[in-house]
TrEMBL record:
This is DUF4198 domain-containing protein. It comes from Vitreoscilla massiliensis. Pfam families: DUF4198 (PF10670). InterPro entries: DUF4198 (IPR019613).
Length: 267
């Protein structure tokens, strides 16, 4: 097991040479039965939460909560990235969802704008980006509804936990399945890190590289075992890029997915 942990730490550090600037994740504190859920959209550098720029607010769909009784939309309250449930939650397991809607981004000599190639005629590159975030929430410390957690919710790119992270101890595998348009995505790299792993300056706007505590590829069924190195608040991430159709409108279709969860007693 020590060799496995050392290997994951080493490969994670090697993969820190990859650059991701802004990303989307969901943050939610642990609550007990009868309490109102307070959740937030993270957009920027994990785990720092910050106000979303006004010209990007329209990109984000309202946050949603998935439980055994279906899906409900959360209400925005507080800062523009903060949401809460209409009613207190009962004990059990839930998924909290965040969505960055498909958006064209093109770059020319003046920089990036929310435009396609048909709108920015001198563009050097165009990407339609969409981001999907999911958080595993276990309310209380007793009954769980694992069927809620292990069932796909229909995100275009989605990380599906195959067991409840609450049952996973440090050094044990957390199997997840990566789906793209509902189908298993094989041979894609999933990386993961935890709050406190990196000492990167979160106020650095030069998109400093984010070290990763884990990195591995999915198998032919789209499954990979995340090996958590320690207790705490974790974020897993997958990126998938493909040619956009038609090419006259944009070069690449880029989808991003994150899964946040807690390991061990710190939840």
């Amino acid at each position: 097991m020590k060799n496995i942990l050392k290997w994951n730490l080493l490969t994670g550090l090697l993969f820190s040479t990859q650059v991701w600037s802004h990303e989307v994740w969901v943050d939610a504190e642990h609550i007990h039965s009868g309490e109102v859920l307070q959740a937030a959209i993270g957009y920027g550098h994990f785990p720092k939460l910050e106000k979303i720029a006004s010209d990007r607010l329209g990109i984000f769909a309202p946050m949603q909560l998935v439980g055994k009784n279906g899906i409900q939309t959360l209400k925005q309250k507080g800062e523009n990235y903060q949401y809460e449930s209409e009613l207190p939650l009962q004990e059990g397991s839930y998924l909290v969802l965040g969505t960055y809607k498909p958006t064209f981004w093109s770059e020319n000599n003046s920089g990036w704008r929310q435009q396609s190639l048909r709108q920015m005629l001198d563009a050097k590159y165009c990407e339609q980006s969409a981001m999907y975030a999911k958080h595993v929430l276990n309310v209380g410390h007793g009954r769980t509804d694992n069927d809620v957690l292990t069932r796909a919710v229909g995100q275009v790119l989605e990380i599906v936990p195959l067991i409840n992270p609450q049952t996973v101890q440090v050094g044990e595998p957390l199997p997840v399945k990566v789906l793209f348009k509902g189908e298993p995505l094989s041979n894609v790299t999933l990386v993961a890190t935890f709050k406190g792993f990196t000492e990167r300056d979160l106020n650095d706007h030069n998109h400093t590289l984010e070290p990763q505590a884990f990195s591995h590829q999915t198998n032919s069924q789209g499954i990979v075992d995340i090996i958590p190195l320690r207790e705490g608040y974790w974020k897993a991430k997958v990126i998938h890029k493909a040619d956009f159709v038609p090419q006259s409108e944009c070069n690449k279709l880029a989808t991003y997915a994150t899964l946040t969860f807690h390991i061990g007693s710190e939840h």
